Structures are given as C-alpha cells and as structure tokens.
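Action item from last meeting closed. Structure (88 res):
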C-alpha cells in the first residue's frame, strides 16, 4: 500500500465532517480549520476540482485558518484530496 493510500481516509475526514455539519463532533473545529486552509491554498486543475471547492466553500464557516493549530496530518497533505477524488 502506498503512503498516498494509507492516509486517504484521514484526508477526507475533515471534509466529510464539515459537509455533514457534524458540529457536535469534538474534531469539528479542527476540521473547519483544515478545510479553510484547503480553500485558500488548493490548486484547482479542472471543473471537478472547482465544483468540490465551491461545494465545500458554501458550507464552511467564514474565517481564516489558524496555521499554528495542530492537525492529524501536515496541512499541506490535505491539499491532496483533489487527487484522491480523481482516483474514485
């Protein structure tokens, strides 16, 4: 199993919790921070990437990402989620 596959589910979790509006989940604030980072830094290479970005942006509370906050993976790893979507 490639390292890319090993962390795939962990990369999707923040997006799932934010899209589902799981505000009671203790990881929700952390996930919002990760998604905000993604929204500011993602490279959108095609229409599918743009559609995903637009959908996530529509449900994400406004604000700036806290770059000093801890996250399960390095924040840059969450930018790979658009590549993961292509493989589905």
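Sequence:
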């Amino acid at each position: 199993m490639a390292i890319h596959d090993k962390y795939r589910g962990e990369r999707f979790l923040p997006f799932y919790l934010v899209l589902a509006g799981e505000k009671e989940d203790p990881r929700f604030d952390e996930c919002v921070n990760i998604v905000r980072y993604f929204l500011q830094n993602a490279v959108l290479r095609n229409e599918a990437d743009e559609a995903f970005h637009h959908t996530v942006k529509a449900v994400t509370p406004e604000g700036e990402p806290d770059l000093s906050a801890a996250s399960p993976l390095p924040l840059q790893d969450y930018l790979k989620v658009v590549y993961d979507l292509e493989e589905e």
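Note appended to the action item: The chain has five helices and no strands.
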